Each structure stands twice: as structure tokens, then as C-alpha cells.
Amino acid sequence: MKYFYDTEFHDNGRTVDLISIGIVAEDGREYYAVNKDMDMWTISRNVWLMKNIFTQLPNSTTWKPRHQIRDEVYAFLTAGATKPELWAWFAAYDHLCLSQLWGRMIDVPAPIPQFTNDVRALVNWTGTTRLPAQPAGQHNALQDAHHVKRMHDHITNPHG
Asked: Which helix (H) or strand (E) holds 126?
């Protein structure tokens, strides 16, 4: 089963701190969570994050401790009948954020892949020159995950 996801995060050049994660399964299921354990003091000093990310975070039950997000993401990604296939846009940091839910990359439990396919790379490989525009919600992890799926579907099935 294919899973399209996005993360919002704070990167200070040494550490990457997960802010939120959104995942859309090809069967229509969705997952979204905000990391209650993020370093709010550091994030609050970053004007861009506060303006573009933090203002879109919901004030609700989606705020969860990191260990709960880890457990729920695992359950979500392993609920399908087949091994999960991960997809993201500029996937490197997204995969890092996902992997760090378990600690080190080698700690990511099977059957979760130790890599994420990159929709941006599909653009290069296929020579795609036009992609669907994102209607709204840019920098909202769940809305971005939906857009990753739209772009993937457009590239892999342009007439469908």
C-alpha cells in the first residue's frame, strides 16, 4: 500500500525537531498529529516557523507526545495488507523525521521501509513539466500529504 506523507519540522543545522506529520493512505485513510514534545522555546524564536507553520496548527487533540505519535504511525502504516511504500516531496527530511520517531534509522521497525520514494525525483525521471497546483493549506502536513498524492497520481497516471 502506498502512503503519501509530509512533515513540518525545525532544523537548526544540528538537529531536526518534528512539529507535525500528515499521512494519506492510497485507500483514503488519513493520519495527522502535532508533536506535543517539540522544543517550543526554540521554535517560538523562529519567525518563519511561527508565521508559516505554527499559525496552521490546530488547537485540539491532535497534539500528542512523541511516543504516542510513534505508536500510532506504526499502527497506521502497518494496517494494510501489503508492505508500506512511502512517498514524499523532497523526501530526505521527511524520512529523517519519520525515522527519528524510533530513534536511529536502524531502529525503524519492520515492515516500515528505511527509505522514502521521492515524488520530486519522479518529476526528473519522467520529464513532467506541469504539476497540479496546491489549492490551499501549504505548510500544513496533512494538506501537503494530500498534495503529494495528487502530484504522484498526476505523474504516474496523467490521463486518468
From this structure: helix 119-126
Grid cell, residue 129, equals 513539466
Cα dist from 125 to 44, 118, 130, 154, 156, whole Å = 39, 11, 14, 14, 11
Q: What is the mean pLDDT of the chain?
A: 94
Q: What confidence category does residue 160 fall into, taking pLDDT thresholds of 50, 70 and 90?
A: low
**Tens digit of pLDDT for each residue in 50-80?**
999 999 999 888 899 999 999 999 999 999 8
Phi-psi region of 58 (alpha: psi -120 to 50; beta: other; left: phi over 0): beta
Burial class (CB in 10 A: 0-12, 13-18, 19+), 145: buried
Q: Which residues contact 80 (CB under 8 A, 6 or more apart)?
A: 1, 25, 27
> What letter would DSSP give residue 72?
H
Taken as a whole, the chain contains a residue count of 160
| pLDDT tens digits for range 37-46 | 999 999 999 9
**Count of other CB atoms within 10 angstroms of residue 51:** 11
